[in-house]
Structure formats: C-alpha cells, structure tokens
Amino acid sequence: MNKLEEVLNRLVENTNSNSAILVNSEGLSIASVNANNEDRIAVMIASLHSMGEKFSSDLDKGNVEQFYIKTKEGYILLKDVTENAIIGLIANDNSKLGLLMMYLDSATAEISELI
Predict the structure, then answer these.
(1) Torsion angle, CA of 46/10/101/66, rounded to 10 degrees?
(2) How much of the chain exceeds pLDDT 70, in percent?
(3) pTM above 0.70, yes or no
(4) Domain holding 48: CATH number?
(5) Residues 6+ apart with CB under 8 A from 39
(6) Model confidence over 24-53: pLDDT tens digits?
C-alpha cells in the first residue's frame, strides 16, 4: 500500500465510510480504497466537480472547495486537494456530517503534501 492509499485507508477507517478515491481533474483515478467501479466513480467525481465549478463561476461565487450530496443511503463528499486533484468520500447514512468534513479536511492536507 502506497502513502496515498494509507491516507485514504485511515480516512475510511476513521469515518467508518464505504470508500475513498483520489482522482485528477480529467477523471482518472490516482489512488483508492474499497472503490467498486473505480474508473466509473473517478469520471463521475470529475464531472460533478466540473459542473460545480461552472455553476459557482456563473454565480460569481469563486472556486468550489468542497461539496456534498446527501442521499437516502448516505453521503458523497468531494473536496479539492490541489488544482488538479479531487478527493471523494462515500459514507454511510449514519455518519456525522461534521466529523466526515473534519476528517476529510485532515486527509486533504496530508495528501496535498504528498502530491
């Protein structure tokens, strides 16, 4: 397991989440933990991020730093790591959103130093 995967693994374990994935802005996976359909998820994360950037830009709200989607089954959180890297976290519905965001911020800081 490489250093990026170690950080993602700690994130998943600390948050009791399903999976975490680090992707580039073009939708290619850089590293992941427990990500079924990794390539498909990577493309969707990049697409969502791109749409969020466009939406934010159209509203003159600046760059997107993070966003989340709440579903009946849980959460999908996305956060910028660098200009070209995005981290995605797929969490359970019983997760605490504040804790997810706190651990996601910590993992993002660690990963930004590694890449």
Answers:
(1) -20
(2) 100
(3) yes
(4) 3.30.450.30
(5) 29
(6) 999 999 999 999 999 999 999 999 999 999
More confident site: 65 or 89: 89
For 61, list phi and psi in degrees, rounded to 5.
Answer: -110, 10
**Token pair 């159209």: residue:** 58
SS (H, E, C) 42-64: HHHHHHHHHHHHHHHHHCCCCCC
Assess contact for 28 and 6: CB atoms under 8 A: no
Domain that holds residue 47: 3-114
Pairing of strands 29-33, 85-92: unpaired
Chain centroid to CA 66:
8
- Tokens at 35, concatenated: 């990500």
H helix runs in 3-96, sequence order: 3-15, 38-58
Tell me how many domains the chain contains.
Answer: 1
